[in-house]
Amino acid sequence: MRYRPISPAALAAELTARIDSFTQRGRLAVAVDGADGATGTAELADALVDPLRLLGRPAVRVPARGFLRPASLRFEHGKRNPDARYTDWLDLGGLRREVLDPLADDGTGEVLPALWDPGRDRATRLPRVPVPERGVVLVDGEFLLGAGLGFDLVVHLWLSPAALRRRVPENDQWALPAYERYEQEVDPSALADVVVRVDDPRHPAVYEPEA
């Protein structure tokens, strides 16, 4: 596999240009996928907001953590069950209904930036946010591929197995089997539009398929 080294700033610029090149639809949904707390998905999504706005593409940030299911469902099999984290934590239906469906050509154009507050374990009751034509919704989180979510562009932040074990926070080490299962069952690098190796977040590298 061949990776092209790139600076974080240049990566954000390349992704911004690629997003801006989409002209097929009025509103876009872009996913930044990777292990929570280890890959910097939120930081990369945040870094795209201002460059997109400068190109006349208003950006709305939607962290997938705002669409976790209630604690009674997430922790039904214990708070540290890797299989539950992989299959049961994210409210896929809510994310599809409140964020992705409204961006369709016949959708309302109004998205809900978060449905559930996992800290207080209650609904956020946030107002919907209108996404204008040429607007972009940036969703960051883990396990976003292989679930039938209709993103226009997916960026997957990949870690080598050794780096994954090193970078996952200590209190989340129990989730490592979930990430291994995602890698084996979904192979996100094969499905994503852009794959970025982030073993060292200061020195990312973009995967370039062999010609």
If you had to describe this structure to a student in words, what would you say it looks like?
- The chain is an alpha/beta fold.
- It has one domain (2-208): Rossmann fold (3-Layer(aba) Sandwich), CATH 3.40.50.
- It has helices at residues 8-20, 41-54, 71-74, 82-87, 92-100, 161-167, 176-185, 188-191, and strands at residues 2-5, 28-33, 59-63, 110-111, 116-117, 122-123, 129-130, 136-141, 153-158, 194-197, 205-208.
- The strands form three sheets. A seven-stranded mixed β-sheet has the order 1-11-10-9-2-8-3. Strands 4-7 form a two-stranded antiparallel ribbon. It has a two-stranded antiparallel ribbon with strand order 5-6.
- β10 and β11 form a beta hairpin.
- The longest helix has 14 residues, at 41-54.
